[in-house]
Amino acid sequence: MAARTWDQEVDVVVVGSGAAGYVAALVVADRGGTALIVEKEPKWGGTSAYSGGGLWMPNNPLMARDGAGDSRDNALRYLDAVIGDVGPASSAARREAFVDAAPKVVQDLADKGIPWIRAELYPDYYPDKPGGMIGRGVECAVFDGKRLGPWLATLAGPPNAPPVAMTTRDVHYLPVAVRTWAGFVGTMRVFARTLWWMLTGRRPLGIGAALLGRLMRLALDRNVPVWLSSPMRELVEEDGRVVGVVVERDGRPVRVRARRGVMLTAGGFARNVAMRRAHQPVGDTFTSVSPGDTGDAILAGEKLSAATALMDDAWWGPSFLMPDGTPAFAVYERSMPGCILVDANGLRFTNESTSYIDAGHDMLDLNPGGEPAPTWLVLDAHHRRRYLFGQAPPGLTPKDWFTSGFLQRADTLDDLARQCGIDAKGLKATVAAFNEAAARGVDGAFHRGATAYDRYYGDASVRPNPNLGPIAHPPFYAARMVPGDLGTKGGLLTDAHARVLRTDGTVIEGLYAAGNTTASVMGRTYPGPGSTLGPAVTFAWIGAHHALDTHGAPKVASPRTEEVVP
Fold first, then answer.
1. Is the distance from CB of 502 to CB of 440 less than 8 angstroms?
2. CA-to-CA distance for 79 and 90, rounded, in angstroms?
3. Is residue 2 part of a domain?
4. Smallest Cα–Cα separation from 556: which of 37, 34, 112, 108?
5. Any bridge partners for residue 327, and if so which?
6. Domain co-membership, 328 together with 428
7. Which tens digit of pLDDT belongs to each residue from 184-214?
8. Same domain, 476 and 404
9. pTM of the prediction?
10. 456-474 confidence digits (pLDDT tens)
11. Same-domain pairing of 420 and 539
12. φ/ψ (deg, to 5) at 536
């Protein structure tokens, strides 16, 4: 394509407006280049805005500040132990690139204006493995959404989510607010902080929304254009190199030249039913990601003979199907004492308090290669009276949960089993065995409560094991569970510089990718809190620098005068 046919030229085109996309654009802008973010949805932020907003960043500067004792070798030892050999997506070179860059990314974003908080109590998901630690996660402080002006109205996120001045390190206090002093104080602190923000005329954005709000504010300060409702329709290739994109904007094609590269950060394919049925063992998409997660960038890369990997996997986790049919990712509900996960035979099949991806894989393994087998979370009256369940406070269960069939209730385990289609004999035997284990405080079957991660979402007032309590107090409850996800894990295969690779192993020059658009460096596991966003922003940062370094640093640009509006 001749240069005269381009409608616009920038140094880097970023496809997708999640956290990784903004980080790439900020790198370009702060090095004197021009970046353009194109987003197909009418809202910006993508799945990052739906998330907890944490980043798993080993050996980061906040750990060094606190004397936490992490190191490059320790982090690599942990990744080796947890991930193993899963092919080129998690090659030694890519692991080393992530571990080496992660501390630099945290420091660079802090220098740009991101106020990081260390999640110092949040363990790695396998803290007992070699190199495992507590406190490798970082997150963004609460942000005032009013600083975004008109852009606040187009920030993505869960519908009807209330403004709450909360960080992820607050989350594990909420389920035990009426059970432990720490839980009560932590929960009251969230309410008081939120009230103060509101009374002082601010709009608190927490967790994922806080991170995206701050990144957008930094982009606006640098006059980085963000085009909403502007899907990328084509990657433009010349002589084996990607040189630009075709974007649909206001109903017409706009050709944008990317002088130094195109960065794909458009998410995975969690909401593309056809792709999921082609690659994964799920016929329905019980996903918690944003609506635009339909695999467009992956498909565009495949048209250029890009290689893919890990397409059969996802960031799985047990999820509820709420009365309105929407999936709700379950973390703390299944970890508290007084509940178990069972299959149709009434048998336990996993450590209920384990990491969500392991529990999700265990759900899928009940019927390998076929449709997911039915599973239920079974709990008793003490569990429902003591702990937060979804957004339902302890002891206050919405009536439509029962009328819709979302939650079954019965005075006996026999009746509960009949209502759910569970084998009653198997369920009663399982509950009896579990209650004996709870009395001893040792789960010989699945080792629930044996690690710091298990106990993080437990009830510290329950001894000797904060995750074990009997299921003995009627009425009994059961909620159907499905293998939901936080996005797909498979995608375009990239190298240590975030460059997209062809099926023959060669580099597609000018094309970079990060986040769920790529096959995850974390392989088939989930090493710690923020293992999605951490590598996503890190490889976006790596790729943006590589694009500028490889093709010559841009001339320092004068500030753009184009008005940036939603």
1. no
2. 10
3. no
4. 34
5. 321
6. yes
7. 999 999 999 999 999 999 999 999 999 999 9
8. yes
9. 0.94
10. 999 999 999 999 999 999 9
11. no
12. -60, -55
